[in-house]
Amino acid sequence: MSPGQWTIAVLPGDGIGPEVIRAATSILQDCAREFGFRVNLIEFPFGGMAIDKCGKPLPQETLEGCLKADAVLLGAVGGPKWDSQPLDRRPEAGLLVLRQALGVYANVRPIQLRKPLRALCPLRLDPDTKIDFEIIRELIGDIYFGEHITEGEGQKERASDLASYSVPEIERITQFAFARARIRAHRVTSVDKANVLATSRLWRRTVTRLAAAASDLTVEHLYVDNASMQIVLRPDQFDVLLTSNLFGDILSDEAAALAGSIGMIPSWSAGDGPPLLEPIHGTAPQLVGMDMANPSGAILCVSLLLRERFHLPEAADLIEHSVDAVLADGLRTTDIAERGSRAVGGSQFAAEVQRRMRQAFRQRRPQRAQPA
Fold it and tell me: Which of 18, 161, 220, 358 has the greatest number of C-beta atoms within 10 Å?
């Protein structure tokens, strides 16, 4: 990775993916001009669009481009059009292969209720209650990557999916979660189902062993069913939630509702290769072409990229403050609209974020000396 010059593989994906990624890349280019770095954005086909164009969800050209990039920015993949495809040829299968090829074993999903959206939280919150935690989801193991078997026909048809984890896989995601907790509030809640599942028993034993050597952290364990209840009852108790792949997938969508909309949540997947950034929402095919998609999750992916990968916290803060300013002014996409707000299209929302950013750019620049 060359200092100040980065290549981003852009995978617009399907459904509303291209709309939200268009907003995100425009924000990124604005930041590049202001903060003096260069980005080379290279677009590749991926997901259902790639199936239509190339016959498979992850073409070799796309995979090679992602592996060579400094980061990968993804919209979303999938949709009813490709539901009849075999499991190994659906758009989602391409996503699993891409994650594995990139080695991105740790998925970070920040769950943050932004101040202007507090009224949209479905919970009755005390005025001083703060929802701000991270779900650290192991991303390239578990049942998604196990053997999938369907056999027999009719009433004799059976299907099975194999979930498996090894000690090294659990150790690396646990150490990642511990590192995240050390830059937050030093609290980790490990989620499992150790009273039923062998994988969870191994998970709990491994996390417990590593926690014994992490005296600076508070580490506790919750069964996944209790964790799902606690997210609703008292979300402010959490700092870092450590989960397996399947449990993290489910719990992060539940937690996203606390932020007002799943459209508000970005994610960052890290590991051995280039990071993968994507909003956690789906393709929402019913919204395609209607300019109704919320681009906030994709825009906040750029903030994560600048903060976590390119170490530009000022730029990341500026993006987040601009999003908050637009929300505070009452401009909302339809998924986060409320009484007294003004519903706007996704493109106008993104344009308003850019306008606030450019105002902030002018304020941060030193004033030119006035002529005598």
Answer: 18
